[in-house]
Structures are given as structure tokens and as C-alpha cells.
Amino acid sequence: MWKFLTAVAVVVGLIAFGDKAWTLPYIPYFAMSIPAIWIVFLAGLYISQR
């Protein structure tokens, strides 16, 4: 279940970042512009590591 939610969070995050996802230095900028999605993404990663 958690792995599924994590996968969804990753997909949503990639869609949100679009073609900028690979430009690591710019991710914080896009992340701040979409805080809700970023929070979901980090929450998914955190839960998946537990």
C-alpha cells in the first residue's frame, strides 16, 4: 500500500516538475513553487524508508 502511494507521489512530482526534473540545481525553485506536491513527495519517500 505504502509503495503504491510512494509511486503515485513520485509520478505526480515528475509531472509537476516536467522536463525540469533532471536539472537538480533548479528542483528547489520548482519545489517552492509547488509546496503541496513537494510535501507529498517527501512524505512518500519518508514513509517508504520506514
The largest sheet is:
none
Secondary structure: helix percent: over 70%
Poorly predicted regions: none
Question: What radius of gyration results from the CA coordinates?
Answer: 11 Å
| Number of continuous helical runs | 3
Helix and strand element order: HHH
Tell me, briefly, the overall form: globular
Q: Oligomer, anyone?
A: single chain
Average pLDDT, all residues:
70
Task: For this entry, give a set of tags.
mainly alpha; 50 residues; globular; 76% helix; 3 helices
Describe the structure.
The chain has 50 residues and is mainly α. The chain has one domain. Helix content is 76%, strand content 0%. It is built from 3 helices and no strands. The protein has helices spanning 2-17, 27-33, 35-49. Helix 1 runs antiparallel to helix 3 (35-49).
Write the layout of secondary structure elements.
Elements: H1 2-17, H2 27-33, H3 35-49
Helix pairs in contact: 1-3
How would you briefly describe this protein structure?
With 50 residues, this protein is mainly α. Helix content is 76%, strand content 0%.
